[in-house]
């Protein structure tokens, strides 16, 4: 499988050089790696980290203090603060979200305020400031959602897609990137299992013996977003071609000496994840290393043809009823593959002692 082979050196004629970029929720795993990548390969005019946790911002400043860096305390629920932070910005990555599935189930209104109202605030602030391009990060849980987190992210996706119709021929262009579980990101299953192992657990808890997930590294996720700033026309949802894993195989890879205990599915949790639903097959196009889900609504300012992107890559319509689901994905990682990937990502982790 050809997968996310991204060449920063030749990327978009260095499209981020001399530009101002803002990342909402920028102190999280994605924001750290995105910042590291931009500073290593490009010369941004400004890189703005917008988030609400002052301690995380303080800690991030100890690592990233380049002259172009700016840190804004703020919440995506606060539209006025967002609008002020976006002044003079060219590109926005919307990564802020309430992401924990059980927390969203028990605190639904808070999830709605951040993930839906916050998305609307980002859109309006971007329009008011004439931002050039906006990419919103989504999740596989937004496809045919069964939990509140996925439902709010589906609503957010719809808002960002429809925003292109609101602005018509004007700026900004809005697109969405949807992908699966990020290996080793803060709050995910790998650090959870690792913490149990380091603290001497006598077993590994797995919610269901058949559970599967899409699997992507943090750097691959960052590179995919960077590439899609070049590809985007506005209104599409980008989905990378990535492998799947079985959660029991992850447990075996991380702790082959420990037994696995099945503990039951958590509130709002799916057995398998989906990124391209069959109901959207009529709007889905396959490219070499990704899929594009085109808008279901008609844009009145331009064609809805997404068979060719902004850098002249060509896609083809998928078959009727096509679905991209973690359990039927033809690409699976073996226990050995998972162990090797975990080793590489732990060595390269932004949360490791070396960083």
Strand content: 15-25%
What order do the strands of the largest sheet run in, or round the barrel if closed? 3-2-1-4-5-6-10-15-14-16
Helix content: 25-40%
Major β-sheet profile: 10 strands, mixed
- CATH class category label of the domain at 11-179 and 217-241 and 277-325: Alpha Beta
CATH architectural type of the domain at 11-179 and 217-241 and 277-325: 3-Layer(aba) Sandwich
Descriptive keywords:
alpha/beta; single chain; Rossmann fold; ten-stranded mixed beta sheet; 18% strand; 17 strands; three-stranded mixed beta sheet; 355 residues; disordered C terminus; 10 helices
Can you describe this structure?
This protein is α/β, with parallel strands linked by helices. It has a domain at 11-179 and 217-241 and 277-325: Rossmann fold (3-Layer(aba) Sandwich). Helix content is 34%, strand content 18%. The protein has helices at 29-41, 54-63, 79-85, 101-106, 108-128, 148-167, 189-198, 218-231, 247-254, 335-347, and strands at residues 20-24, 46-51, 69-73, 91-94, 133-137, 173-177, 181-182, 204-206, 212-216, 237-240, 244-246, 260-262, 274-276, 284-286, 290-293, 316-317, 324-325. Strands 3-2-1-4-5-6-10-15-14-16 form a 10-stranded mixed β-sheet, with helices on both faces. α1 (29-41) packs across α8 (218-231). The radius of gyration is 20 Å and the shape is globular. Residues 350-355 have low confidence and may be disordered.
């Amino acid at each position: 499988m050809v997968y996310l082979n991204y060449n920063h050196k030749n990327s978009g004629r260095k499209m981020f050089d001399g530009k101002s970029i803002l990342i909402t929720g920028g102190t999280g795993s994605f924001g750290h790696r995105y910042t590291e990548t931009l500073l290593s390969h490009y010369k941004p005019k400004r890189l703005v980290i917008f988030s609400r946790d002052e301690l995380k911002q303080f800690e991030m400043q100890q690592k990233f203090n380049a002259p172009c860096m700016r840190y804004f305390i703020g919440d995506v629920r606060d539209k006025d603060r967002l609008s002020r932070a976006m002044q003079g910005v060219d590109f926005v990555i919307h990564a802020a979200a309430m992401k924990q599935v059980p927390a969203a189930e028990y605190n639904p209104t808070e999830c709605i305020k951040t993930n839906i109202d916050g998305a609307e605030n980002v859109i309006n602030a971007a329009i008011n400031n004439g931002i050039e391009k906006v990419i919103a990060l989504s999740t596989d849980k937004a496809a045919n959602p069964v939990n509140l987190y996925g439902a709010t992210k589906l609503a957010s996706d719809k808002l960002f897609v429809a925003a292109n119709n609101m602005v018509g021929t004007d700026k900004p262009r809005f697109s969405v990137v949807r992908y699966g579980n990020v290996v080793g990101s803060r709050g995910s299953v790998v650090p959870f299992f690792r913490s149990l192992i380091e603290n001497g657990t006598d077993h590994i808890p797995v919610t269901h013996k058949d559970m599967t997930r899409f699997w992507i590294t943090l750097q691959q996720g960052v590179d995919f977003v960077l590439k899609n700033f070049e590809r985007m026309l506005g209104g599409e949802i980008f989905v990378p071609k990535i492998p799947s894993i079985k959660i029991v195989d992850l447990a075996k890879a991380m702790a082959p000496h420990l037994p696995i205990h099945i503990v039951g599915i958590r509130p709002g949790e799916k057995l398998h994840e989906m990124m391209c639903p069959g109901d959207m097959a009529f709007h889905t196009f396959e490219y070499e290393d990704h899929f594009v889900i085109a808008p279901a609504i008609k844009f009145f300012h331009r064609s809805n043809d997404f068979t060719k992107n902004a850098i002249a890559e060509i896609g083809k319509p998928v078959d009727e009823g096509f679905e991209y689901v973690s359990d039927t994905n033809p690409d699976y990682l073996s226990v050995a593959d998972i162990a090797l990937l975990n080793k590489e990502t732990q060595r390269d982790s932004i949360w490791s002692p070396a960083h």
